[in-house]
From TrEMBL:
Single GO term (MF): flavin adenine dinucleotide binding
SUPFAM superfamilies reported for this sequence: Acyl-CoA dehydrogenase C-terminal domain-like, Acyl-CoA dehydrogenase NM domain-like
Family designation: Belongs to the acyl-CoA dehydrogenase family.
Pfam families: Acyl-CoA_dh_1, Acyl-CoA_dh_M, Acyl-CoA_dh_N
Residues of the Acyl-CoA dehydrogenase/oxidase N-terminal domain: 6-116
Protein name in UniProt: Acyl-CoA dehydrogenase
């Protein structure tokens, strides 16, 4: 193992592992089946300080470094991806405020997000601006002391539940990425309505919704940074949150390997436990190798991003490591869960066993917070900026 966890991190990881096994795992299949937001798990995580674990202590968060935050997401995802997304999505909703908000804005918005009193959301994606986030069409027009926001956002995690949203809207369409601005919007504003709530393949307990903004009034002092800085705020946010999605993917993969190993020790065919078949042992060895390689890259990425802090400047290292971790861990999750279904045979394909859920949940990690094709683009661009290795 090349990574190093402190005694504190190990203790924290083991505590979350026990909490997840005792309180989350028994709910996982039902959350998936019902496809409803698990309020009980949200309350549990609020009570245990997991909802704001990676947010600053001065605002009521847990003050955890990024690696510790990732450990929390990983351990919960090992048993329930939807539940791990509660932690990751809250973190994503808070991050633009932490990256670019003034002290006054952070004091105003973060404590309620960190404590779980308000659910947060990050509203960037639009029907015509997915991977091309710079194509944002939602507009914010300044009128005196406020802005009016109009447009449509789609695929918004926590959409319809969030009481604090960070919304990206253009204040100067002709300036493209340089015309986008970021606003904190009250989820109960008049003119803000919830459109379709999506029926999803996986992470089914997480609510994903379309949001319509019809001249929603936002006070001018809810603008994060300056007008035109929104795109960079979104990018700097994603640099700091993609490791959380990588941790979710890693946890899903680890969870799938755990249950597969246990099953193969029990299930007998041809007169002996399946685990004694060499072809199966080789598959398990590949799964373990992929998981451990992914874990090493993610923990390294968490360290790189943490060391850079919230620095104003884009750092090629931060961007590249964050994207590489997300790319590798999510591909691992897809491969490992697909192999897990195969190793369970017919049982892998039915709802009585958890691996089919894990395979469905794994898929989204290759898509959200930037598809893996976008991660490759980002990695390549930053590779050019990296310069010659020492
Ligand atoms: N940090 C700081 N600044 C950055 C940056 C970064 N990581 N990346 C780019 N920038 C800056 C550039 O330096 C450039 O600045 P200038 O205007 O001063 O030159 C500006 O931003 C524009 O950058 P690009 O020219 O690189 O922009 P682009 O249009 O080519 O696109 C992209 C870049 C990487 C493709 C970007 O659009 C992207 O990341 N797309 C994916 C969007 C995404 O991840 N969406 C996820 C939605 S959230 C979600 O999924 C949440 C959920 O449900 C849980």
């Amino acid at each position: 193992m090349s990574y190093h966890l402190t005694d504190e991190q190990i203790l924290f990881r083991d505590t979350v592992r026990r909490l997840a096994a005792d309180r989350v795992q028994p709910r996982a299949a039902e959350i998936d089946r019902r496809g409803e937001f698990p309020w009980d798990i949200f309350e549990l995580f609020s009570e245990y300080g997991l909802v704001g674990v990676g947010m600053p202590e001065q605002y009521g968060g847990g003050g955890a470094d990024l690696l510790t935050f990732c450990l929390a997401v990983e351990e919960v995802a090992r048993v329930c991806a939807t539940s791990s997304l509660i932690i990751a999505a809250q973190h994503l909703g808070a991050m633009p405020i932490l990256v670019a908000g003034s002290r006054e804005q952070q004091e105003r918005f973060i404590p309620e997000i960190a404590s779980g009193r308000k659910i947060a959301a990050f509203a960037l994606t639009e029907p015509e601006a997915g991977s091309d986030a710079g194509g944002t069409q939602t507009q914010a027009i300044r009128e005196g002391n406020h802005y009016r926001i109009s447009g449509t956002k789609v695929f918004i995690t926590n959409g319809g539940l969030a009481k604090t949203l960070v919304v990206f809207a253009s204040t100067a369409l002709s300036r493209k990425t340089r015309g986008i601005s970021a606003f904190v919007v009250d989820g109960e504003s008049s003119g803000l309505s919830v459109g379709r709530i999506e029926e999803k393949m996986g992470i089914r307990g997480s609510q994903t919704a379309m949001l319509n903004f019809d001249a929603v009034t936002v006070p001018a002092n809810n603008l994060l940074g300056q007008e035109g800085e929104g795109f960079k705020i979104a990018m700097r946010t994603l640099d700091r949150t993609r490791p959380g999605i990588a941790a979710q993917a890693l946890g899903i993969a680890q969870g799938a390997l755990d249950v597969t190993l246990a099953h193969l020790k029990e299930r007998r065919q041809f007169g002996k436990p399946l685990i004694e078949q060499q072809s199966i042992q080789f598959m398990l060895a590949d799964m373990e190798t992929r998981i451990e390689a992914s874990r090493n890259l993610l923990y390294k990425a968490a360290e790189v991003v943490e060391t850079a802090g919230f620095a104003q400047q884009a750092s090629p290292d931060v961007t590249r490591y964050s994207a590489m971790a997300k790319l590798m861990c999510s591909d691992t999750a897809m491969q490992v869960t697909t192999d897990a279904v195969q190793l369970f045979g017919g049982y892998g394909y039915i709802r009585d066993y958890p691996v089919e859920r894990m395979m469905r949940d794994a898929k989204i990690t290759q898509i959200y917070e930037g598809t893996n094709q976008i991660q490759r683009l980002v990695i390549f661009r930053n590779l050019l900026e990296k310069g010659t290795p020492e």
